């Protein structure tokens, strides 16, 4: 059997090759999806070192459990499910620590943030909104945060979200809807808007 | 002016409602709904902008390779292992063993039962004949010397001796008949003594020198030429001693209840 060009192979083909012991195929998978995994982990745990650890741990676990992967789901879905579980574990462990650190450093270095708008007033307003959203997102329960990150930040399809959550598509839609409401309820007071 | 349900506002703001549906829903919306819609639209835009607001990771393939090597590879799971088939059998065996070894699961001694001493306990002195707790036929009857001892039918009773009870010198025995039988068996170990000699002492229990538990086995203990004395629980009216009978062999004697 001729091994195809790794860059052109599908994820499933690369997984099959990696299962046969071809480590370079797994390296290709890593190169292809590490940005996605890192970004998702960073949105879930907004600490760069945590996100890097989670990314690495997710790929280690994926490699160790490749024989468990079945072709019914996309590789990225399976990978994101691993990342979600890791983030849940990490979040539970470090929630207390993060809360304390956030309280201590609340706004202490906010003035150093560089805005992307040219107008300083708009920059300030945009930064304030973004900061409010990040704070609200970080304060959401983990299941709500996962739903928001998957659907509204990573823009995943509902069937993929359902597969990650292990529920129906309707259930996934309901979870996302509830998460958006919860986020709105937390964001509105921070940006000075009423929700009634 | 109408108030639009919040679920519909969310669907419109996050682009999950079709164009026609959005226009239909928003037609004649009240200012409150419009304000909420605006809030949700900005929230959606901000969330989507967050995807690009991620610092560059410092990840490398070498680091991953190191982590994989450090964590080691899991062995591939086998679909079925025959060793699992032995698990229920092993569990059952352990359970049976556990039940048999637990002293508290040994059948408790009933209040109407009596306890007799094993042969080694007889070294402490004569043991008074155990009183009968329940009426019933005697196991062994006194007959003229040389007459065969006919087996006497008696209701069958069994005594279960658990692990703890077996390890003790005190053996619980049910009923007077069984006690008599055990006493007789114990005495058979000292079968060299004559019945009149025993009768004159007025007790039926073996004395010192008959304490070997192994000698409770009749055939193993008695020499070939020795006579065997069976002691009954009834006493002789003339002497007050227990009735006794000598037999050469116990092959046709039924002991027990």
Describe the structure.
The complex is a heterodimer of chains A (196) and B (257). Chain A has 196 residues and is an all-alpha fold. Chain A folds into 2 domains: 1-106, Orthogonal Bundle (Rna Polymerase Sigma Factor, Chain: A); 113-196, Winged helix-like DNA-binding domain superfamily/Winged helix DNA-binding domain (Arc Repressor Mutant, subunit A), CATH 1.10.10. Chain A is 71% helix and 0% strand. Chain A has 8 helices and no strands. In chain A, helix 4 (75-104) packs across helix 7 (158-165). The model of chain A is unreliable at 110-117 (pLDDT under 50). By secondary structure, chain B is mostly helical. Chain B folds into 2 domains: 6-50, no CATH class; 109-247, no CATH class. Chain B contains 9 helices and 4 strands. Classes of the chains: A mainly alpha (196), B mainly alpha (257). The A-B interface holds A 27, 30-31, 34-35, 38-39, 42-43, 48, 51-52, 55-57, 59-60, 63-65, 67, 129-130, 133-134, 148, 152-155, 177, 180-181, 183-184, 187-188, 193, 195-196 and B 6-7, 10, 14, 32, 35-36, 39-40, 42-44, 46-51, 53-55, 57-59, 61, 63-64, 67-68, 71, 73-74, 76-77.
For the largest beta-sheet of chain B, the strand count, sense and barrel status come to: 2 strands, antiparallel
CATH level 3 topology of the largest domain in chain A: Rna Polymerase Sigma Factor, Chain: A
Strand content of chain A: under 5%
The gyration radius over C-alpha positions of chain A equals 19 Å
Percentage of residues in DSSP E strands of chain B: 5-15%
Shape of chain A: globular
* Helix-strand sequence of chain A: HHHHHHHH
Q: What integer is the average pLDDT of chain B? A: 65
Count of individual helical segments of chain B: 9
Biggest interface, residues from each chain: A-B, 40 and 34 residues
The tally of strands of chain A reads 0
How would you name the oligomeric state of the polypeptide chains in this document?
A: heterodimer
Structural class of chain A: mainly alpha
The CATH homologous superfamily of the largest domain in chain A is called: RNA polymerase sigma factor, region 2, helix turn helix motif
Number of helices of chain A: 8
Computed structural class of chain B: mainly alpha
The tally of domains of chain B stands at 2
Uncertain runs of chain A: 110-117
Number of domains of chain A: 2
Distance between the termini of chain B: 102 Å
């Amino acid at each position: 059997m001729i091994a195809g060009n790794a860059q052109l192979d599908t994820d499933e083909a690369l997984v099959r090759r990696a299962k046969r012991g071809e480590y370079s195929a797994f390296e290709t998978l890593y190169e292809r999806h590490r940005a996605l995994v890192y970004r998702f982990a960073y949105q879930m745990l907004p600490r760069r070192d945590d996100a890097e650890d989670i990314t690495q741990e997710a790929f280690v676990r994926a490699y160790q459990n490749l024989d468990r992967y079945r072709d019914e789901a996309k590789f990225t879905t399976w990978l994101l499910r691993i990342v979600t579980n890791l983030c849940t574990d990490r979040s539970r462990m470090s929630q207390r620590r993060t809360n304390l650190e956030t309280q201590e450093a609340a706004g202490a270095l906010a003035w150093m943030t560089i805005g992307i708008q040219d107008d300083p007033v708009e920059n300030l307003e945009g930064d304030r909104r973004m900061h409010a959203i990040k704070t609200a997102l970080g304060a959401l329960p983990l299941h709500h945060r996962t739903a928001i990150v998957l659907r509204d930040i990573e823009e995943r399809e509902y069937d993929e979200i359902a597969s990650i959550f292990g529920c129906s598509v309707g259930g996934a839609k309901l979870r996302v809807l509830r998460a958006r409401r919860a986020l709105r309820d937390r964001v509105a007071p921070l940006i000075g808007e009423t929700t009634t | 002016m109408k108030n639009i349900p919040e679920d519909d506002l969310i669907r419109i703001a996050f682009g999950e409602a079709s164009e026609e549906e959005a226009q239909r829903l928003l037609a004649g919306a009240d200012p409150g709904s419009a304000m909420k819609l605006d809030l949700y639209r900005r929230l959606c835009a901000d969330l989507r902008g967050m995807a690009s607001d991620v610092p560059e990771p410092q990840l490398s393939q070498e680091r991953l390779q190191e982590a994989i090597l450090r964590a080691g590879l899991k062995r591939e799971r086998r679909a079925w292992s025959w060793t699992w088939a032995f698990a229920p059998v092993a569990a059952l065996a352990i359970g049976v063993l556990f039940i048999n070894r637990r002293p508290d699961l040994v059948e408790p001694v009933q209040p109407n039962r009596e306890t007799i001493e094993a042969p080694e306990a007889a070294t402490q002195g004569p043991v008074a004949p155990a009183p009968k707790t329940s009426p019933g036929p005697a196991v062994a009857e006194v007959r003229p010397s040389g007459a065969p001892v006919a087996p006497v039918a008696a209701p069958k009773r069994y005594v279960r001796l658990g692990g703890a009870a077996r390890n003790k010198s005190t053996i619980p025995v049910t009923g007077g008949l069984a006690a008599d039988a055990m006493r007789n068996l114990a005495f058979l170990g000292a079968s060299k003594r004559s019945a009149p000699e025993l009768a004159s002492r007025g007790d039926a229990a073996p004395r010192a020198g008959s304490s070997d538990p192994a000698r409770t086995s009749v055939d193993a203990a008695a020499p070939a030429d020795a006579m065997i004395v069976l002691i009954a629980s009834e006493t002789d009216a003339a002497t007050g001693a227990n009735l006794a009978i000598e037999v050469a062999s116990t092959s046709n004697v039924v002991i027990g209840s």
